[in-house]
């Protein structure tokens, strides 16, 4: 049995418009299913847990990375596996695992029952699939991107938002603890996670591995706008980590103390905090994949 948790506003309403097609495909394939439609932010977690505890073997997030985040936290500790129907703005989780964008092919992945166990991360007690947790100019960009999601999709949302943030951004003063290492930085970019992609296809953590038990961490200290303009195009291909201005680490736990409350982008959702604790959770998520 498959439960579909539909975020009706995801992808500018694309998720909601997919419901008739989901019904048609599931009827054709003779698979038991139920569709749950969220009415408010956070309800995806509630509905996913209800479905998992009702015996659904797969609980599929129909939306973007924010919808996946809610479903992951809803099914935590249950026997249900996470499924993805990628119809959001960024779909970075689905991109990493090559989950098809075509609806019927994505549903076939759920039906095949191929389960992969992957690491997650816990950020301030929130379980995440660990795609990317970021602050600095990338989180400021995510805040700005909300304004453009009605008009644009995919990477163009984030690139347009970045151009609006770029010349106004001022670095944050932070203290960073990583396992036995401590750093003081004025960060332009901080990112940590167990997967690679951010912002609809930017390969921010190219070396990330969701099965190694570690967070990949990337830090860019205070740099000039010209150096930042050199760095950013390289992120598209994941080659930016070769630059001397980019620091790369691996850690099981990272703590950040900022000089003020700052925006933090957690798998497509924004929270504000002065203090962050990020730690890897080994084998946290059962995922339907190819």
Determine the strand fraction and express it as a percent band: 35-45%
Q: How many E strands?
A: 15
> In terms of per-residue confidence, which ranges show pLDDT below 50 for 5 or more consecutive residues?
none
Instruction: Compute the average pLDDT.
Output: 91
> What is the rounded Rg?
19 Å
- Biggest sheet overview: 9 strands, antiparallel
Short synopsis of the structure:
The chain is an alpha+beta fold and 290 residues long. It is 29% helix and 38% strand. It has two domains: 2-113, Probable inorganic polyphosphate/atp-NAD kinase, domain 1 (Rossmann fold), CATH 3.40.50; 133-282, Tumour Suppressor Smad4 (Sandwich).
What does this structure look like?
This protein has 290 residues and is α+β, with helices and mostly antiparallel strands. The protein folds into 2 domains: 2-113, Rossmann fold, CATH 3.40.50; 133-282, Tumour Suppressor Smad4 (Sandwich), CATH 2.60.200.40. The protein contains 9 helices and 15 strands. The chain has helices at residues 14-17, 19-29, 43-53, 65-75, 92-96, 103-112, 137-145, 155-165, 225-235, and strands spanning 2-6, 33-37, 58-63, 81-86, 115-123, 126-128, 133-136, 172-178, 181-193, 197-198, 202-203, 215-221, 246-251, 253-266, 269-288. The strands form 3 sheets. Strands 5, 6, 7, 8, 9, 12, 13, 14 and 15 form a 9-stranded antiparallel β-sheet that branches. It has a 4-stranded parallel β-sheet with strand order 2-1-3-4, sandwiched between helices. β3 (58-63), α4 and β4 (81-86) form a beta-alpha-beta unit. α7 crosses α8 (155-165). The model has no long low-confidence stretch (mean pLDDT 91).
């Amino acid at each position: 049995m498959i439960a579909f948790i539909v975020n009706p506003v995801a992808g500018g309403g694309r998720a909601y418009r997919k419901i008739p097609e989901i019904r048609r495909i599931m009827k054709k394939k003779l698979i038991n299913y139920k569709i749950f439609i969220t009415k408010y932010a956070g309800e995806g977690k509630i509905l996913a847990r209800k479905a998992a505890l009702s015996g659904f073997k797969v609980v599929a997030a129909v939306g973007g990375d924010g919808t996946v985040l809610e479903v992951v936290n809803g099914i935590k500790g249950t026997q249900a596996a996470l499924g993805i129907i990628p119809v959001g703005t960024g779909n970075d989780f689905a991109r990493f695992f090559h989950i098809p964008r075509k609806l019927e092919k994505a549903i076939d992945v759920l039906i095949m029952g191929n389960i992969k166990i992957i690491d997650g991360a816990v950020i301030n007690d929130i379980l995440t699939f660990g795609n990317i947790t970021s602050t600095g100019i990338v989180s400021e960009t995510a805040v700005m991107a909300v304004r453009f999601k009605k008009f644009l999709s995919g990477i163009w949302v984030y690139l347009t938002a970045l151009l609006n943030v770029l010349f106004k951004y001022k670095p944050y003063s932070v203290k960073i603890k990583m396992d036995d290492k401590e750093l003081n930085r004025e960060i332009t970019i901080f990112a940590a996670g167990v997967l690679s992609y951010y912002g609809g296809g930017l390969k921010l953590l190219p070396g990330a591995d969701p099965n190694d038990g570690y967070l990949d961490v990337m830090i860019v200290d205070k740099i000039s706008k010209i150096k930042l303009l050199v760095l950013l195009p390289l992120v598209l291909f994941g080659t930016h980590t070769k630059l001397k201005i980019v620091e790369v680490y691996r850690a099981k736990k990272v703590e950040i103390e900022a000089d003020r409350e700052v925006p933090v982008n957690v798998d497509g959702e924004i929270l504000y905090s002065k203090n962050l604790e990020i730690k890897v959770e080994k084998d946290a998520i059962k995922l339907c994949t190819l």
